[in-house]
């Protein structure tokens, strides 16, 4: 087998920017070949420019809500590599609106990307994960643990991702593929800039015992740990990386 076939491979969705890009760089620093998937052409170009000259990265313009597009990526990756060792389902969108204002289109977009994308990528990459005896980490959210205003679609999609993770842990776990989820608290990214109003920021500041937002690095470290041999008996868990927000149990307005 050539050394290219033997290399460890991590597939990270929504990795052109934000938390996904940080996760991609973490796996790269741990010597993985990293496959970056994103549907935002401009963000993908910026990401390529940022990582220019670095080997062990592949880039794919791919919408995780579209199984045919994911299948094409899978075919290309498996023609080059024997197996996949980590899949991080990070791609997500947030639409924060009062329940009465959420449109059917908003609901479908959030559910088909956040939940559907997680299901689609896991299903399509499963045969390669099985060969690699790999691990899945799904990026949920503390908004899926605790219900609060404006998050009827987003929070529901993230809660469903947590249950999907447990199903995967039970069903794929029988064959040696582990699945866990991270539920991040607030992290300063483009998404947070878009949906975290001044009110939400004040609420988080009051409700998080560590009294700050998390960093992208704090999320990527936890994701990498769950994929690493150090977590070899951890399966079906939802790990909150939230500064104690969930433990404190204080509601948002
Ligand atoms: P972000 O918007 O900065 O990055 C998300 C990336 O996903 C973007 O590059 C975007 O183009 C990509 N993406 C979105 N839909 C896609 C699709 N259909 N196909 C492929 N790529 C797609 O957001 P972020 O804050 O880095 O969020 C990353 C993940 O973390 C998301 O799942 C989000 O819900 C979750 N999260 C974020 C926070 C936070 O406070 N930032 C908190 C909890 C959970």
Automatic annotation (TrEMBL):
One of its GO terms (biological process) is fatty acid elongation. Coiled coil: none annotated. InterPro entries: NAD(P)-bd_dom_sf (IPR036291), Sc_DH/Rdtase_CS (IPR020904), SDR_fam (IPR002347). It comes from Sandaracinomonas limnophila. This is SDR family oxidoreductase. Belongs to the short-chain dehydrogenases/reductases (SDR) family. It comes from the Bacteria. One of its GO terms (molecular function) is oxidoreductase activity, acting on the CH-OH group of donors, NAD or NADP as acceptor. PROSITE patterns: ADH_SHORT (PS00061). NCBIfam families: PRK07231.1 (NF005559). Pfam families: adh_short_C2 (PF13561).
């Amino acid at each position: 087998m050539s050394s290219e076939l033997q290399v460890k491979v991590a597939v990270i969705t929504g990795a052109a920017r934000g938390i996904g890009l940080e996760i991609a760089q973490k796996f790269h620093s741990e010597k993985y070949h990293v496959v970056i998937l994103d549907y935002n052409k401009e963000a993908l170009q910026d990401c390529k420019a940022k990582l220019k000259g670095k080997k062990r990265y592949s880039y794919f313009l791919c919408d995780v809500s579209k199984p045919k597009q994911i299948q094409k990526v899978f075919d290309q990756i498996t023609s080059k590599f024997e197996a996949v060792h980590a899949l991080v389902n990070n791609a997500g969108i947030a639409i924060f609106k009062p329940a009465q204002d959420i449109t059917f289109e908003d609901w479908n977009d959030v559910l088909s990307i956040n939940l559907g994308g997680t299901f689609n990528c896991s299903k399509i990459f499963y045969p390669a994960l099985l060969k690699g005896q790999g691990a899945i980490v799904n990026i949920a959210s503390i908004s899926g643990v605790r219900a609060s205003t404006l998050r009827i679609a987003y929070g529901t999609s993230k809660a469903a991702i947590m249950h999907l993770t447990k199903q995967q842990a039970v069903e794929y776990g029988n064959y040696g593929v582990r699945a866990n989820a991270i539920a991040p608290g607030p992290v300063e990214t483009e998404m947070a800039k878009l949906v975290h109003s001044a009110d939400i920021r004040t609420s988080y500041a009051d409700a998080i015992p560590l009294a700050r937002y998390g960093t992208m690095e704090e999320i990527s470290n936890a994701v990498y740990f769950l994929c690493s041999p150090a977590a070899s008996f951890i399966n079906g868990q939802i790990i909150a990386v939230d500064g104690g927000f969930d433990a404190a149990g204080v509601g948002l307005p």
